[in-house]
Batch of 4 targets.
Target 1
Amino acid sequence: MAQSAPKLNLSKSMAMYEASQRLSPGGMMGIRRPYNFIPGEYPIFLEKGYGGHIVDVDGNDYIDMLCAYGPIILGYDEAEINDAVKAQMDKGFCFSLVQPIQNELEQRLIDLIPSAESVILVKTGSDATGVAVRIARGYTERNTILRCGYHGWHDWAVEVHGGVPQCVQDLTVEFEYGHLDDLEAKLEAHRGDVAGIIITPVGHPLAKAVQAPPAGYLEGVRALADKHGAVLIFDEIRSGFRVALGGAQARYGVTPDISTFGKALANGYAISAVVGKAQFMNVCEKKVFISSTFFPNSLEMAAAMKCLDILERDGIVDLVWEKGTWFLKELERVVKASGVSATVNGIPPMPFMLFDKVDEHAKERRERFYTETIRRGLFIQPFHHWYISARHTQADLEKAIRAIEEALAVVAELYPCQ
């Protein structure tokens, strides 16, 4: 008989959460709110991280396969990166005027990324995609943006929510990943007014997890953008420095006009980059305005330079793919053996599984599964793909697979598939 794991002690987390709701709307913003996990089962406040693990304020230790939604490509508390940041800190880091390290990092990105002839350094993924879209509109003098999936929280990108005027929402049109005919239909429907096509090259939407692009798909998107005079933007905020050092565009051989990179660029420090061909990027010299007090801050640039050093020196991308390939194979094995109707998908650096909607209990299976895995010390997200980091040890990955196997056994017993 499958054994359910005992509930974790989360008393400090819950008390802090109660206090936080008096201090901030909802206690915290967006996807870190408890309803995005399993309320009452997942920690809400964390104390520290080390290697491939996180520790909550109650002292519970977890193998972390969310990796802060992607920034942690190496691991937590990386001494080399911390030391590089401290050294930069001693020089000062916020002047509004730029420091030499900006040139160094921009040249590094130009050397690594196929689409990069020019670079703008910003702070967040939403900053980067917002800049890319503004460049596309400024270059083409058109208005409509065709998008595929999530590209940030700004007005042009966010799905229908309060606070965004309808006239702004109408200028962004969704198309379906993997279906060239849908993209072509949207281009025809807005012929002559499509400024840019923005797409995450490796899979969308999040509900279906990440997938390798179908054969010929990215090439087809490139051809349609050229045919209609639209700027092609690859959102590589997640895929950059995980799929390949030069991003998915380097691995799959299709070069966009503009790209956005972030998350894994600095192993958790807040920096992102917009890179692109000079003919598009140069509209920012006079025609398109981009500015922020904090964009030139150099601590994050020092972290990024050292992170890139480690990625290149230690062959981290190949290592992550090797670990992820083993994990995906084992995940497929235990899911198949469990008898639970679920689908394993994703690519080695970003695996995932979905519970198939074979009957009315799909939601209950998902909630029970993630309750059991978190209780067993595995931190994975019910609604977002997972990540493999360099510091996940073989022992970590084996423990994660055991937790998944035991959780699936509980699910199979409570909610058997007919």
Target 2
Amino acid sequence: MSRKKISIISGISLVAIIITGLIFSSYSALNSETDPGNPTAEQNKQIRQEVTPPPIPEMLTFAGEPVPLDNFDVRESLDRELLVNTYFHSQTLLFMKLAPRYFHIIEPILKENNIPDDFKYLALAESGFNPKAISPAGAVGLWQFLEHTARDYGLEVNNEVDERYNIEKSTVAACAYLHESYEKYGNWTTVAASYNAGRRGIDREIERQKETHYYNLLLNPETSRYVFRILGLKTIMENPEDYGFYYKRKDLYPIIPTKEVEVDTSVENFSDFAQEHGTNYKILKYFNPWLRDTTLVNPEGKTYEIIIPKGKYRSY
């Protein structure tokens, strides 16, 4: 076949391909509105998840103290934490599921010790509702106590018993610490900041900057975000639907009925102890993470209250 004929055939083939493509494109365009497998641009827009800025409340307080949202830096700092916690769906939803289980323990203790209820969100910001949380600095438990601070506030810390992991006792100790801070600073917002930075850290910045309130202080990056993280969590968890979180009561983790068993002697084996009380070692440790060993020598004959779920709690 001559080169001329090949060239003509190639040209005809190219034209045929172009025409076929145009016909197919026109057909697709005509049928896109009715073809569910080929959504229009408008349909695509509806299918995509909308990502919008979370609402910033008109007014907000912490422990009864107003948050100065008219200050641009305060407003933008709050906005950052609302963004982070609104769109960290899994973590924030988990916090909501866990909240009843921990708040029902923390709230009455705060009230009994005259600490504002909002400080329950400080415990959440500290540990993420993990009573066994350990920080890189060695702070432990729901309220993240360092060992020497825990002992200063009456918590027992040794190889067998570490009451930093005891929710009730560590909450009482935290209340004592917070009261001392309030006597020093006179406002709960700065008290909350001092829980993160330490009183010495806050005192140093107050002296250097000649300012006395958290919202007017330039602090280290962690403490600068700290109170706003608490405020963000409080705002979202108290108004979940405003931030796109929808759940039913049955979705929340239930409060497990428990009883207290007093022990003032040694315990040779907590696995045996658990089974004698209708549970197992795993569940015993879940409710009593402050028991740090498999045994309890208890040479001084102290009385400890060990929490046991009511009724039989053995799956197999």
Target 3
Amino acid sequence: MPTPYNKTSTAYDLSLFDTAQRKERKPEPKPEEYKPELKMVQTSAAKVGRPIAVILTAGLFLAVFIMFLYSKAQLSEVNLKVSEETAAYESAQMLNGQLKSELNGSVSIDNVEEYALKELGMQKVNASQERYAEMNIGVMTETAESEDENIFVSIFNWFGGVLEYLGF
């Protein structure tokens, strides 16, 4: 602490660094009524802002926690639906296999013959029931000659036959 009579800067007072002079100098007694206290003065804005910040932070954490729980609940519901649908799919596959084997058994030739004999009253064909039809293998179509052809129609037909012969 600078001495009261020295109004200069303490940076150039080299006597403060001299140990002999320091011993000779007596410290000044502090007055008893002077007791420094450190008080923090809070403004009204700081007093009001702190509870609001705590409430907002708590509300934010609560909202995040509720959203987390909701997402977990949705995930468990979806997993439950997936397991139910998987079980239904597996049972449908088993039923499909049973129906395919039943269909394969019912479509065999022996079953078809038995159904035709018993239900429809049909019978197997024997040699006495076979009849063969004979057909005339000659020319099956004939073109009729038109009676009213004139010379121009004949020339036109002849010319069409020549073009047909040449491949046009």
Target 4
Amino acid sequence: MELAIETRELTKRYGKQIAVNRLTLEVKPGEIFGFLGPNGAGKTTTLLMLLGLSEPTSGTARVCGHDPTREPLLVKRLVGYLPESVGFYEDMTAIQNLMYVARLNGIWDGGLRHRMEELLDQVGLLGEARKRVGAYSRGMRQRLGIAEVLLKDPKVAFLDEPTLGLDPDGTQKMLDFIVDLSRRKNITVFFSSHLLDQVQRVSDRVGIMLKGNLVAAGPIQELAKQKLGVDQERYTLEEIYMRYFREGETAKA
């Protein structure tokens, strides 16, 4: 089985600073993988290398079987990316923004407008489709970002802090979208978040980054058993994460 995402000894240095240190990771097709860590842990740097937006210092990465450094345009055609701060042309409507993205990606099929309306309906924005995006709330922009991701019919969706700043209703809808991407559309979801309770609710597996190093990866239940000695669902991802974090701080001291 071809992996959706695979890295081997992936490393990124900025001068003497190591942002990502020999990262070896596997993510299966259709999986929801939560990528965790504090600010500066190397999460965003990893995402940029997987997207072909930053070149690794050493090591290799493959996304959908392709090298994002050597085949960046091909990888970009196969994946979708929702950054933490979603950027749109604010003087354009949702439909106009999606049309612009479609043209950039060479999507010209005759049913494009119908497809865009379907996607906006799925994310609850069809009634706002002709409103200028400058008038959208953060939650609406995030939902439009999901529609943009789906427009490309990607094999992998990279989501960076997808629920940050959303109200409870918007958060639940975003989590439902994430599950739907994986379960109904069989899209691999690789998402970074600080909100551990949300990650626990939707992830098949998680990876924990500390100071550029992947210190743990696996199903949450297995990590709980390894780190907390708990074999039942009487634990939280936050407890697991904080145990790794404290151990990392102790080792640093």
